[in-house]
Specification:
Blueprint: E1 10-13, H1 19-36, H2 48-60, E2 65-72, E3 75-85, E4 96-104, H3 113-127, E5 133-135, H4 142-150
Parallel strand pairs: 4-5
Antiparallel strand pairs: 1-2, 2-3, 3-4
């Protein structure tokens, strides 16, 4: 990938052959969040990559889920996972797309890959008739929050945690 652009990166549906890499990305996502707040987020374990890949296998087969990858000449460098959900009275919202995860390998960040993945997921949700997309992001993840704000997301909820 050129230093300035993700123009040649292709966003496509994830396939089973992508799962080992996506499992490692999922473990990296867990690790990043645990680094943000060790009391709130779970730590990675030796099995985390395999467990996350097994989780995504089920999502790939779920018609309500979207799992897309950023492919740089055959190298998967990021992914996005979203779901098309109905009413959620716990979240006090109507039907919506829920952006569950977005991850770009650290060496490919700040080159437009995240924007491309996010736009593709939103486009897929829109094609399904979804009119609203919601997400949660770690309080300390300022870089992700800037990405989401540039894409038109606004703050609507604050999660708070207390140990007992």
């Amino acid at each position: 990938m050129t230093p300035d652009t993700a123009d040649h990166v292709v966003v496509r549906s994830a396939i089973r052959a992508d799962l080992p890499r996506l499992g490692r990305f999922g473990a990296s996502l867990v690790d990043e969040h645990h680094g943000f707040d060790q009391r709130r987020f779970i730590p990675t374990r030796e099995r985390t990559p395999a467990d996350y890949a097994a989780f995504l296998i089920r999502q790939i087969d779920d018609p309500k889920a979207i799992v897309l990858v950023a492919d740089d000449h055959g190298d998967v460098i990021g992914y996005v996972y979203a779901t098309d959900e109905g009413y959620d009275y716990m979240a006090l919202r109507g039907p919506a797309g829920v952006l569950q995860d977005i991850f770009v390998a650290p060496e490919f960040r700040r080159h437009g890959v995240g924007e491309k993945l996010l736009a593709a997921a939103i486009g897929e949700l829109k094609s399904r008739g979804v009119s609203q997309v919601v997400l949660s992001t770690a309080e300390q993840n300022a870089e992700a929050q800037r990405l989401f704000a540039r894409a038109g997301f606004r703050r609507t909820m604050v999660e708070m945690t207390r140990e007992i």
